[in-house]
Amino acid sequence: MRATTPFVSGLTVYPVKSFAGTSLTSMELDAAGPLGDRRWMVVDADGATVTARKHPRMLAAVATRDPKGVRLSADGLSDLLVEIPSGPADVPVQLSRLDTATRAGDAADAWCSELIGHPVRLVWLDDPARRGMSDEHGGTLADPLALTDTGPVHVTTTASLHRLDAWAAEIHDERVQAALEAGKPPPEPQHPFDMRRFRPNLVVDGDLEPFAEDGWGRVVVGEVELRFADQCGRCVLTTIDPDTRATGKEPLRTLARHRRWDGEVWFGIQMVPVRGGRVRVGDPVETTAR
To answer: For 15-30, what is the mean pLDDT?
Structure first.
């Protein structure tokens, strides 16, 4: 039996950009989004951001917030506690509206280099207010933004995921029929998508229409109020299985058929905190149309 009132069914924070997320039962948010979310990132020798788009092995690493900083763990590597660095923000980085970040240190660099397989650095953003949002994505430079791509809080709904699963099943059935008619082996079964592919901070469940979030202007949940900033364009990162790290064409193939406009495919929304506070799994979600 489905709940009639929308509620929070999942909360996830991603301390290191492109590493696996950590599921939480409660989450504190401030003006820059979930506390500790994407305050660290891996860069190459030129300061360019290194992500799981090209290095899926990063999805096998988990970064857990620690009172002193962040704890890194991955199969085959010893856990490493990386303390928040006290040095200057003097490492050049190539990220929109951010020129420099703070180096995490030799041990962190070595750990990330071994994880990825070539020399890289781990850096930390001291203050998200130094970056700020882009007006192209529904914000201003006065809205602090950590190292996430476009917005502080990424919100998805299970209703939309279920609709995406149904669309993907239809496409799979078409491909099976075409293969049979051509006398070729049918494609592998299409399994339901894991929401982790989309890397949301907040997942909303309940009796919702698929993609209802497209029309949300405000969301009130727990102590927090959020405002709509932008829809979320999806990239090749969603095609990487978060467990096996195998790549494929889904879900981008299905999204391209049903959710493509302005040259991108869309799933989920980005939101900006209007009022910070704590959110808990199970909290009811109130929405206002925009």
So the answer is: 98
Length of the chain: 290
Q: Cα-flanking dihedrals φ and ψ of residue 172, to 5°?
A: -65, -45
Residue 213 · residue 268 · CB < 8 Å: yes
Mean pLDDT of the chain: 96
SS (H, E, C) the chain: CCCCCCEEEEEEECCECCCECEEECEEEEECCEECCCCCEEEECCCCEEECCCCCHHHHHCEEEEECCEEEEEECCEEEEEEECCCCCCCEEEEECCEEEEEECCHHHHHHHHHHHCCCCEEEECCCHHHCCCCHHHCCCCCCCCCCCCCCCEEEEEHHHHHHHHHHHHHHHHHHHHHHHHCCCCCCCCCCCCCHHHHCCCEEEECCCCCCHHHHEEEEEECCEEEEEEEEEECCHHHHECCCCCCECCCCHHHHHHHCEECCEEEEEEEEEEEECEEEECCCEEEEEEC
Both structure tokens of 31 = 């003006």
pLDDT at 266 over 50: yes
- C-alpha to C-alpha distances, 129 to 42, 264, 284, nearest whole angstrom: 20, 28, 30
- Cβ count within 10 A of residue 261: 8
Instruction: Check pLDDT > 70 for residue 219.
Output: yes
pTM for the whole structure:
0.95
